């Protein structure tokens, strides 16, 4: 398969599935009623941030698929993606900051593991995951803070 097609499939797939998850798990009245920490960002920022992150995740996934399809690194990429797509249904869909925290912690660990696994063989993929790791680290603190405040 052509490399360009692989990149497009990964990027469109990740952005598309991420968008669908967001569409089917809106924040709703429950979230609006929660106490949030002072560092909670405005709601409008999440869409643009996640779109950029999903593009970077897709790029890293495509690069890994092309270079090391059957590797532990590719498996780690898929694990973090599944956890990523489970977080919103856990937090917003089931209205459970605790369950979401149980999802986001291993998600963050798998992101860090992917960075470590990719660092030597594919620095570009590892670098694509650095902003993702930073955002999910922040989201983990935010998730924990919401759990503790409510």
TrEMBL record:
<keyword id="KW-1133">Transmembrane helix</keyword>
<feature type="transmembrane region" description="Helical">
    <location>
        <begin position="5"/>
        <end position="24"/>
    </location>
</feature>
<feature type="transmembrane region" description="Helical">
    <location>
        <begin position="127"/>
        <end position="149"/>
    </location>
</feature>
<feature type="transmembrane region" description="Helical">
    <location>
        <begin position="74"/>
        <end position="92"/>
    </location>
</feature>
<comment type="similarity">
    <text>Belongs to the TspO/BZRP family.</text>
</comment>
<protein>
    <submittedName>
        <fullName>Tryptophan-rich sensory protein</fullName>
    </submittedName>
</protein>
<dbReference type="InterPro" id="IPR004307">
    <property type="entry name" value="TspO_MBR"/>
</dbReference>
<keyword id="KW-0812">Transmembrane</keyword>
<keyword id="KW-0472">Membrane</keyword>
<feature type="transmembrane region" description="Helical">
    <location>
        <begin position="98"/>
        <end position="115"/>
    </location>
</feature>
<feature type="transmembrane region" description="Helical">
    <location>
        <begin position="44"/>
        <end position="62"/>
    </location>
</feature>
<dbReference type="Pfam" id="PF03073">
    <property type="entry name" value="TspO_MBR"/>
</dbReference>
<dbReference type="InterPro" id="IPR038330">
    <property type="entry name" value="TspO/MBR-related_sf"/>
</dbReference>
């Amino acid at each position: 398969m052509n490399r360009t097609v692989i990149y497009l499939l990964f990027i469109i797939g990740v952005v598309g599935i991420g968008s669908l998850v967001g569409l089917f798990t809106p924040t709703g009245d429950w979230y609006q009623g929660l106490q949030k920490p002072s560092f909670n960002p405005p709601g409008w920022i999440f869409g643009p941030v996640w779109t950029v992150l999903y593009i970077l995740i897709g790029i890293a996934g495509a690069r890994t698929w092309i270079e090391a399809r059957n590797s532990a690194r590719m498996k780690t990429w898929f694990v973090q993606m599944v956890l990523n797509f489970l977080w919103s249904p856990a937090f917003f869909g089931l209205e459970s900051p605790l369950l979401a925290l149980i999802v986001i912690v291993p998600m963050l660990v798998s992101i860090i593991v992917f960075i470590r696994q990719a660092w030597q063989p594919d620095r570009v993929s590892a670098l694509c995951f650095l902003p993702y790791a930073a955002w999910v680290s922040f989201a983990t603190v935010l998730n924990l803070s919401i759990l503790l405040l409510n």
